[in-house]
């Protein structure tokens, strides 16, 4: 039977636990830009530990397409009905405020994303192009028929964004800072490519930490014990406390991914006189198609203040790990021009958006056109002041 001549069976699931893990991960492995964050283990841990559930404003509405001939999953997407805009890193607070000022509800909205994770990569799992287009159309139709203000797909691949904009969604661009491994032999080899002032500053920052008597342990996921997870979680919570906010993730979540996907984790622990004082956790994935793979800087915290400890724990130690493991890219996470001084360069990210209200949709489209021009000018200016030697 020609695949173009049948319809998939669509499903809306109230939990990632309702989808077969092996089938989900098999779909993920077929994608051009898979990330560890879209693994069933990661998404199900968010749900099982009540980090991303209806009570926290993240009600799962996972969309699936099943092949009627085989009964197997042909496409799927992590979709949530959101009651707020926290934990997204593509900011639409101004849109929500405009709705409120006009007496219209902005929430709930539909969001296709990995909760609390500003990482670009596959969002629409599909066996082939036909399934991808069918899934995209299903997402838009779901939003049109649901009692929601809008649909947002955050950090999709370029191809996914193209398919979604072909269906009428609006494209939005943003900026992150990524480090590229140019085949460096070691950290000093990387430093040698930077301008003298940048190189000198990094060495001075590392020396301050070393002279303070701080030492470091880098542990692969398989070696992280429960005491390490408890200490790391304490550091993670401290970061949020310092910013007068509540942490999105809990100790049970970290324990769960530590058990289910240790091959994707690496923890850095900083110690002073044998006592742990700070920690960072990075997520990584080996990928021969991406010059060795990608490391994602994610979580960090410190219980004691030491000058430059953040840079050493969350940037320089992971950078050394990238070089040692021959990983091709280190994605530094959301925002942060300060990363440029440490060799991270601006990279354009994308998201797509559909708003049900015609007038607001037109207004947002105009806003996005202006924002896009500013983003491109901003990136061009940053690249003119890159930290590398001519």
From TrEMBL:
Pfam families xrefs: FemAB_like
PANTHER family membership: ACYL-COA
Name of the protein this chain belongs to: N-acetyltransferase
The species this protein was found in: Paraburkholderia phymatum (strain DSM 17167 / CIP 108236 / LMG 21445 / STM815) (Burkholderia phymatum)
């Amino acid at each position: 039977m020609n695949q173009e001549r049948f319809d998939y069976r669509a499903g809306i699931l109230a939990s990632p636990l309702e989808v077969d893990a092996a089938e989900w991960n098999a779909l993920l492995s077929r994608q051009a830009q898979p990330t560890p964050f879209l693994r069933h283990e990661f998404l199900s841990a968010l749900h099982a530990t009540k980090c991303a559930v209806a009570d926290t404003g993240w009600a799962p509405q996972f969309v699936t397409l099943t092949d009627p001939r085989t009964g197997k999953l042909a496409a799927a997407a992590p979709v949530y009905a959101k009651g707020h805009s926290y934990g997204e890193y593509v900011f639409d607070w101004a849109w929500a405020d405009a709705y409120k000022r006009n007496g219209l509800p902005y929430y709930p909205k539909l969001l296709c994303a990995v909760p609390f994770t500003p990482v670009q990569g596959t969002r629409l799992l599909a066996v082939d192009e036909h399934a991808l287009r069918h899934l995209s159309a299903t997402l838009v139709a779901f939003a049109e028929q649901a009692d929601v203000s809008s649909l947002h797909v955050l950090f999709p691949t370029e191809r996914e964004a193209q398919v979604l904009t072909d269906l009428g969604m609006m494209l939005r661009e943003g900026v992150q800072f990524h480090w590229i491994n140019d085949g460096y032999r070691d950290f000093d080899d990387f430093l040698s490519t930077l301008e003298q002032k940048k190189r000198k500053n990094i060495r001075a920052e590392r020396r301050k930490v070393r002279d303070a008597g701080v030492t470091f342990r880098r542990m692969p996921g398989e070696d992280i014990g429960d005491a390490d997870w408890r200490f790391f979680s304490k550091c993670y919570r401290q970061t949020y406390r310092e910013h007068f906010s509540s942490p999105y993730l809990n100790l049970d979540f970290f324990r769960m991914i530590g058990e289910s996907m240790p091959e994707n984790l690496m923890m850095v622990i900083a110690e002073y006189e044998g006592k742990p004082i700070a920690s960072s956790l990075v997520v990584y994935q080996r990928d021969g198609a991406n010059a060795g793979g990608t490391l994602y800087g994610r979580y960090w915290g410190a219980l004691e203040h030491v000058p430059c400890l953040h840079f050493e724990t969350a940037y320089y130690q992971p950078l050394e790990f990238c070089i040692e493991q021959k990983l091709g890219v280190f994605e530094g996470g959301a925002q942060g021009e300060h990363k440029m001084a440490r060799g991270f360069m601006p990279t354009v990210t994308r998201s797509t958006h559909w708003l049900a209200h015609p007038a607001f949709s037109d207004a947002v489209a105009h806003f996005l056109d202006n924002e896009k021009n500013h983003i491109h000018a901003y990136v061009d200016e940053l690249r003119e002041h890159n930290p590398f030697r001519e």
